[in-house]
Design a protein that fits this description.
Number of domains of chain A: 2
CATH superfamily of the largest domain in chain A: MetI-like
Largest interface: A-B, 107 and 105 residues
Number of helices of chain B: 16
Radius of gyration of chain A: 26 Å
Helix content of chain A: 55-70%
Number of strands of chain B: 0
CATH superfamily of the largest domain in chain B: MetI-like
Distance between the termini of chain A: 8 Å
Number of strands of chain A: 0
Largest sheet of chain A: none
Oligomer: heterodimer
CATH architecture of the largest domain in chain B: Orthogonal Bundle
Order of helices and strands of chain B: HHHHHHHHHHHHHHHH
Shape of chain B: globular
CATH class of the largest domain in chain B: Mainly Alpha
Structural class of chain B: mainly alpha
């Protein structure tokens, strides 16, 4: 943390008085602060806090998007949700997607990062290529992968038929739709996570590795006992933020499967969208989004715990 | 450059004592190159495939084994795509909303970051956390009331409704605040002694010093805003005001099996972001390394 401009004691000494308005010399700063911070505060109250509170309120009603009047039904929506087998399915799908995607992506990204480590020439270009999927519009990626997954003419099944493996129906098969989405998400996420790991690896003091090597540690031992432990905070950060992010997955699923087939890829965010803007049941959608909020909050608490020391605010 | 050379020399001067297969493998950088190149090929292949398909005439697309490069180079997919979707209008809509949103978010981010990082005022820390807290709230949690607010304000199906909820960004504020700590206070005080106004100091002294963080945030926010999907999907209902990703999603759903056409559309959607990314890629990489942001 850097030093402060003028501490309050210094200011007191300089001006002889402090108060709500402060010294005359501080007036321009105060005026600027007021013109910046007050609108921001109001903005956040109006466009973030009010809607969140309103969602909480809506979750206890049977409100719809079109009819102006609604009834207070208490925990009715939640009772309905928790007694519904479709909902258990949705939560399971979302959790499965989030954990499978994040863990597999992290493992692969670590591998890529270790491969990158000794490489010096051409790093820039390689990094660029690995990062390409992250910057591309999801819709373009979805369009390409929809074709890859096409059961009859898609590239994957054409290739599989060459080696005479019975081709799965991919996004049209209840067993393969979710793995299909996960594979696509891993492909899209590896480069980004790898980049964070590469930065983390570069942050490890070379002395540690040198010292271990002088003591006769093999490359495997250096990786196992020095690099991985020192990277563990970064790995945890990537895993937890990854899970938080993929718990909110919407676009990929919306574009690729719309939750089908047979609800096997239905995820929470998609369900919220469909309840609110297709079935127009915003009370129900609000309850669902409140559940999403609770899950994400819990994960965020975990994240903040894990990186408490990094948060020197 | 020098650092990497010294590092390489250092590793070379201390070969591991127990030569194992793994150590031998580690000493072969070409193996790393080979595997990384294979991985990179996997990353790029879908895009090459998209590009190549978009130039293939319809008769060539379904051939198996597929041709890597189009045998006969055709632009018909692009002409058809131009006919079917008003690409110029989509580009314009998306570009100006994206630029407006990005510009606003970054300007307000810098301004508030400066205020929180360099000023001292009543309630500073609580207000900062109050704003920062909104970062963890998923969009789905406030989108329904937000939509109702927009409809109530007669802003349904307008670009204003797209921009309005994204004037401030807690994350941008956070990033700029962190950066402000690296700017010495003496510099600001010196400007004050030279009787520069507070706004003058911000615009002429602080903002120019923010170069790296500006480049990082601009590139990220441009990508995010360009690819934004859910909110435009909800708010925009007519094709005249549509955003590119949403319009393209409809296009893909409609012409799903006309792969040449779809790939031409996808190529067009990718190009602008790709240009920005290539121009600012150094800062994107720096940004990830510094903040772990996506």
């Amino acid at each position: 943390m850097s030093t402060t401009t003028i501490s309050s004691i210094q200011r007191k000494a300089q001006t002889g008085r402090i108060g709500f308005l402060g010294s005359r010399r501080a007036w321009p700063q105060r005026r600027m602060t007021l013109t910046i911070v007050v609108p921001a505060l109001l903005y956040y109250l109006l466009f973030r806090y009010y809607p969140v509170v309103r969602t909480l309120f809506l979750s206890t009603t049977d409100a719809t998007l079109i009819a102006p009047d609604y009834q207070f039904i208490g925990l009715g929506n939640f009772l309905k949700i928790f007694s519904d087998r479709d909902f258990t399915q949705i939560i399971w799908n979302t959790t499965y997607y989030a954990f499978a995607t994040t863990i597999l992506t992290t493992v692969l990204a670590l591998l890529v990062a270790f491969l990158f480590e000794p490489v010096r020439r051409g790093v820039g270009l390689l990094r660029l290529l690995y990062y390409l999927p992250t910057v591309t519009s999801t819709i373009a990626i979805a369009a390409i992968w929809l074709w890859f997954y096409q059961p009859r003419f898609g590239l994957f099944n054409q290739l599989l038929s060459l080696v005479s493996i019975p081709p799965p129906g991919w996004l049209r098969s209840p067993d393969w739709a979710m793995p299909g989405l996960i594979i696509m998400a891993i492909w899209g996420g590896v480069g980004f996570s790898a980049l964070i790991f590469i930065a983390g690896l570069q942050g490890i003091p070379q002395d540690y590795i040198e010292a271990a090597k002088i003591d006769g540690a093999t490359a495997v031992q250096v990786t196992r006992f020095i690099k991985l432990p020192l990277l563990s905070r970064v790995i945890l950060f990537v895993v937890v933020t990854g899970i938080i992010g993929s718990f909110q997955v919407f676009q990929q699923v919306y574009l690729m499967t719309r939750g089908g087939p047979l609800g096997t890829t239905q995820v929470l965010a998609l369900e919220i969208y469909q309840q609110a803007f297709q079935h127009l049941k915003i009370g129900m959608a609000a309850s669902l989004s409140f559940i999403l909020f609770v899950i994400v909050s819990l994960l965020t608490v975990v994240q903040l715990r894990l990186q408490r020391n990094d948060w020197e605010l | 450059m020098t650092q990497s050379t010294t590092m390489r020399m250092a590793t070379a001067s201390h070969p591991a004592r127990r030569p194992a297969l793994v150590n031998w493998l580690q000493a072969q950088p070409w193996l790393n190159y080979l595997m990384l190149a294979l991985g990179a090929l996997l990353m790029v292949f879908p895009f090459l495939w998209m590009l190549s398909t978009s130039f293939k005439p319809r008769s060539e697309i379904m051939i198996f084994p597929p041709t890597l490069l189009p045998k006969s180079f055709a632009l018909e997919n692009y002409w058809n795509a131009f006919d079917q979707i008003h690409l110029a209008r989509l580009y314009w809509n998306t570009l100006y909303v994206t630029v407006l949103k990005t510009g606003l978010m970054i300007y307000t981010g810098a301004l508030l970051g400066y205020a929180f990082g360099k000023f001292h005022f009543w309630g500073q820390t609580p207000i900062f956390y109050f704003i920062l807290f909104t970062m963890i709230v998923p969009f789905e949690v406030y989108m329904i009331p937000l939509y109702q607010m927009m409809v109530f304000a007669q802003l349904g199906n307008t670009h204003t409704a797209l921009v309005l909820p994204h004037i401030f960004s807690a994350y941008a504020i956070f990033l700029f605040r962190q950066f402000m700590f690296t700017i010495p206070n003496d510099l600001i005080d010196a400007a004050r002694i030279d009787s520069a106004g507070e706004w003058y100091i911000f615009h002429r002294l602080i903002l120019p010093l923010c170069g790296p963080v500006l480049a990082t945030t601009v590139s990220f926010y441009f990508m995010w805003n360009w690819n934004d999907f859910l909110w435009p999907l909800i708010v925009i209902t007519t094709s005249a005001k549509a955003m590119l990703p949403v319009a393209l999603a409809g296009f893909v759903a409609e012409h799903g099996t006309d792969y040449g056409l779809v790939m031409a559309g996808a190529t067009m959607a990718v190009i602008p972001v790709l240009v920005v990314f290539l121009l600012l890629q150094r800062y994107v990489v720096q940004g990830i390394a510094l903040t772990g942001l996506k």
